[in-house]
Each structure stands twice: as structure tokens, then as C-alpha cells.
Design brief:
single chain, 247 residues, alpha/beta, 6 helices, 25% helix, globular
């Protein structure tokens, strides 16, 4: 097994590569401003870090199309000044570096279409790419049985894995590989640097794809990512078994 590939899609740091297509998920621009409004003082560093990391990925892949799989912005009910400025600049960056820019609607993207329209872009519910269907993952399609693509790629969950070393809990962003109602399922980590995400070992799942009672979540495989290095952890049930032996 090549640990860098999940159902034919190549893990490239926090992104997925399918031939000439680069897929990102859950950037959540404006997150720092939302935290500051709650009294949590976080410096606005994410925009520069996202551009720097994405620049490295672009240098390595040279894709012609980029697909942003939902939650480009953070606030639900409005567009903040930080979101408007950063998303506008980010889309210009994407247009300068890719021939085609595809935006998929996430649950935080109620107002993203206003920015997209100003930038001559559409916002899609999902996007078909060969034998892959890319959708955000906050809701399961009603017509799932009519979907011809074999592999679903979702975000929304922001998966990470918490590895304990003594008293310290180190969180590593990760991809998940499993099955959902007869389909292959890939869950992407967030391309967001304010938080690591939801710890799959210590927190409840967010996505309805993973909360579904017919899904054996412990059978999912975990692919950690750290600065372009892929760390294969095996299946969740095996990680839990090892964890129980040592703690």
C-alpha cells in the first residue's frame, strides 16, 4: 500500500491531488476576527500562512484547476470586513495561479456567493471529477443511490488525531479513508492554521457521514500529515487498542 494515495487521490500536504486538479477544504477566512469578537485575542496570521503553504504546494504540483471544498469563510450570518478582504485577495491569488477555480458551498458559506459573483465565479453544491464526487460533507445527498461516482470526498469534519506524550497531547491533522453506504469515502483535514481540528479519538464526529449508525467509524484508516510528510497510523480500532495497552 502506498501511504500517499487514498482511492487513487494523492495526499499532498493538507490538499488532495487528482491528476491536474488540486483540492482544498475548510479555510475559514475570518476565524481570527470571530475569536477576537468573543474576547479571545488571536493575531491575524492565517492568511499569510495559507498563501505560503499553498504556494509550496503549487510549486510541487503545477495544477491547472483548484477546487475549494467548502467553508471558504467562517461567519455564518454575515460577511465580516476581514472575510471580504481576505477572500477577495485569495480568489485573485487562485486566478493568478490556476486556469480554473471551483468553489463548493459549505455550511459557513451562506454569503460567499456575493463575493464569488463579484469575482465572476459560481458556487457549486458539489463537483464531479472523473470517478470522484466532491462535496462539503455537512449533509448527505438525498439521492445518494443515484450517484454514479464511486468515491466521495468531503471536508467539514476537520479531522485530527491526538497523540499523547506524557502530559502533552500533540494533535496532527489527518485524512480519513473508509466506506459509506457502498461508496468509498475520503475525509479531508482543514486547510486552516488557527486550530488543528476535531480529535477523532477524543471528540464526537461532526459530519452526518461519520455519525451515521450504519458506518463502522473504527474501521476507517488514518493518514496523518506534517509538513508534506504522510504518517500512516492504520485503522482507528487498532490505534484505540494500542492506546488502551499503554494508558
Amino acid at each position: 500500500m502506498d501511504k500517499n494515495y487514498i482511492y487513487g487521490a494523492e495526499i499532498t500536504d493538507l490538499a488532495l491531488l487528482i491528476q491536474d486538479n488540486l483540492i482544498l477544504s475548510d479555510l475559514h477566512f475570518g476565524y481570527e476576527e470571530a475569536l477576537n469578537a468573543e474576547g479571545i485575542m488571536v493575531p491575524r496570521f492565517q492568511y499569510k500562512k495559507i498563501l505560503a503553504r499553498l504556494g509550496e504546494i503549487i510549486e510541487k504540483t503545477r495544477c491547472s484547476r483548484v477546487i475549494v471544498n467548502g467553508d471558504l469563510k467562517h461567519e455564518f450570518g454575515r460577511i465580516t470586513r476581514q472575510e471580504w478582504n481576505e477572500i477577495s485577495s485569495f480568489i485573485e491569488f487562485l486566478k493568478d495561479n490556476f486556469q480554473d477555480v471551483v468553489l463548493i458551498k459549505g455550511n459557513h458559506d451562506n454569503f460567499t456567493r456575493f463575493i464569488a459573483e463579484r469575482m465572476d465565479l459560481e458556487v457549486y453544491e458539489s463537483f464531479s471529477l472523473e470517478n470522484f464526487l466532491i462535496l462539503h460533507g455537512d449533509k448527505v445527498p438525498d439521492d445518494l443511490e443515484k450517484i454514479n461516482e464511486e468515491t466521495l470526498i468531503i471536508g467539514h469534519e476537520h479531522p485530527c488525531i491526538g497523540i499523547r506524550s506524557g502530559e502533552r497531547l500533540e494533535k496532527i491533522k489527518c485524512f480519513l479513508k473508509g466506506r459509506f453506504k457502498g461508496k468509498n469515502l475520503v475525509v479531508m483535514p482543514s486547510f486552516n492554521f488557527v486550530t488543528e481540528g476535531s480529535d477523532i479519538l477524543h471528540e464526537k464526529a461532526l459530519s452526518p457521514f461519520l455519525k451515521d449508525k450504519t458506518v463502522d467509524f473504527n474501521d476507517f484508516e488514518v493518514f496523518g500529515v506534517e509538513n508534506f510528510e504522510v504518517l500512516y497510523f492504520g485503522k482507528i480500532r487498532d490505534i484505540i487498542r494500542v492506546k488502551e495497552q499503554f494508558y
